[in-house]
Amino acid sequence: AAGGRALRWASGRVPARGLRASPRARIAMPSWVIDRYGSNEVLRFTRDMMFPIIHFPNEVIIKVHAASLNPIDLSMRSGYGATALNMKRDPLKLKADETEFPLTLGRDVSGVVMECGLAVSYFKPGDEVWAAIPPWKQGTLSEFVVASGNEVSFKPKCLSHTEAAALPYVGLTAWSALNQVGGLNRSNCSGKRILILGASGGVGTFAIQLMKAWNAHVTAVCSHDASTLVKKLGADDVIDYKSGNLEEQLKALPLFDFILDNVGGSTEKWALDLLKKWSGATYVTLVTPFLINMDKLGVADGMLQTGVTVGSKTLKHLLKGVHYRWAFFMPSGPNLDEIAELVDSGKIQPVIDEVFSFSEVPKAFLKLEGGHARGKTVINVISKQ
């Protein structure tokens, strides 16, 4: 699918300027926005959010049928990563007098293509698609959203929009950690022992299914009330982190080839000792100080501090015979193509904790804020799916 995507884009005609405005019949749309950072009271519903415009020839406008919330939406609501994200939005500071507000949150989208840029030949209006919109762009808690064509993929045929909206962001985050950073794929996972810390959340439930689809042995760590879910998803061993000392429980098991850490905190102080030494075993964490460093120290000092931290940890653990890595969400339509194939073949299914209507967005944020979700919090922007 990714190869076909590349060929179709390569054959697309790119005009001299490559710019195209959206139809002016619509100048505003309903959205949930924030005008400042804070807790749930900063969420505001408006019918006057600016309608998205195609600025680049490879962009598409999507009519949002369903979206979902991720922990990053809670963090961004409170201002997490604002320094780095604003630098990405305007790296040359050409718009010194402007701010990121009003800001629409929401990363996942499942919907229908409404308009395509002049260089887009892989999609056409009416196509059902899904995507994960990067955090530096206006989000999906709105009626329409604009995305780069290389961030978009055809929605799995077997899923409704509500179901599909639960997967893109967590799927691509797990794919980044396991495949892009961790080097795991369908040809090298058979028989490998994989440990997933924080297995019952969105990324964890996806990672379990992906690793089982690639024939790995999966040990999942979660609370007891989530054990039935993770077993149903295919986990071979389930460890309840509340039933005694977690470190001692895991040390009683055979060593692992790969650890995915969705928890962070003090975990990495002992988790790397669970890996097989001098065998290429790898620990990948999704909990990093990168954006926090930039918020606290500024862009230059934050990047320097981050580089020193990851460099020193990588060297320290390499000398002990294991690999230490950080991973981040990476938008990718071609990777979503591969995920869609796994979904349509029945190897991966969405895990949804609760579905809310578009009018209940603040309530959905409170649900996510409460923690201990089993899967994703989904929002139906269009009521009937």
TrEMBL record:
InterPro entries: ADH-like_N (IPR013154), ER (IPR020843), GroES-like_sf (IPR011032), NAD(P)-bd_dom_sf (IPR036291), Quin_OxRdtase/zeta-crystal_CS (IPR002364), RTN4IP1 (IPR037397), YIM1/Zinc_Alcohol_DH_Fams (IPR050700)
CDD domains: RTN4I1
One Gene Ontology cellular component: mitochondrial matrix
Subcellular location, principal: mitochondrion
SUPFAM superfamilies: GroES-like, NAD(P)-binding Rossmann-fold domains
Transmembrane segments: none
Pathway given in the UniProt record: Cofactor biosynthesis; ubiquinone biosynthesis
Occurrences of domain Enoyl reductase (ER) (ranges): 38-379
Keyword terms: Acetylation, Membrane, Mitochondrion, Mitochondrion outer membrane, NADP, Neurogenesis, Nucleotide-binding, Oxidoreductase, Transit peptide, Ubiquinone biosynthesis
Domain of life: Eukaryota
Molecular functions per Gene Ontology: nucleotide binding; oxidoreductase activity; zinc ion binding
UniProt-listed Gene3D superfamilies: Medium-chain alcohol dehydrogenases, catalytic domain, NAD(P)-binding Rossmann-like Domain
Gene Ontology BP, a term: ubiquinone biosynthetic process
Family: Belongs to the zinc-containing alcohol dehydrogenase family. Quinone oxidoreductase subfamily.
The protein's name: NAD(P)H oxidoreductase RTN4IP1, mitochondrial
